[in-house]
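Archive entry. Fields below.
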Amino acid sequence: DAMVIQNPRYQVTQFGKPVTLSCSQTLNHNVMYWYQQKSSQAPKLLFHYYDKDFNNEADTPDNFQSRRPNTSFCFLDIRSPGLGDAAMYLCATSRDREADEQYFGPGTRLTVT
Amino acid sequence: GQNIDQPTEMTATEGAIVQINCTYQTSGFNGLFWYQQHAGEAPTFLSYNVLDGLEEKGRFSSFLSRSKGYSYLLLKELQMKDSASYLCAVLDSNYQLIWGAGTKLIIKP
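PREDICTED_STRUCTURE:
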């Protein structure tokens, strides 16, 4: 009965080699979020989709891109990963943007070698 | 700027009570969330407060004072499985969630 699924759970990529992380949801929620979280830090919002409306955070590097081809799926593309991009990447959903709890996937831990 | 402050780490004893404080300064307020995050796992929702006062949910309670920009999470009858980080997050006037860095709670037998 998994609700927010992320694949893979662990991803190793080489410096500069593009990588794609995926997220899917069975909740039919309107909003999907991508967060980056480094050890002992707060989750950092990269972008979110309200339905098909894409919202990029001002300080999200251009190196990070996202796609949401349909309600259920969302992808995070890192075009040229650097060592500083090693982190846990969390996908979350909420029914609506206002005051709704967010449901998180298990995360993908990205290692850059 | 927007800011959420929580203690970095706290230690408590199994069976005891612990209070984790959170103070915030944000542009507007549309509610405060508490999430629990076990090491290496995703955050899970614990509570949501938008009005002043105490919300009780089993062993966990959350309190909010909007005038003071202050909240706390109270955990009773602590169990070893409560060892985790507890994240405070505020929904600002733009409905953007501002996250604290979390409080790592260590439970000792």
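CURATOR_NOTE: Chain A has a mean pLDDT of 93.
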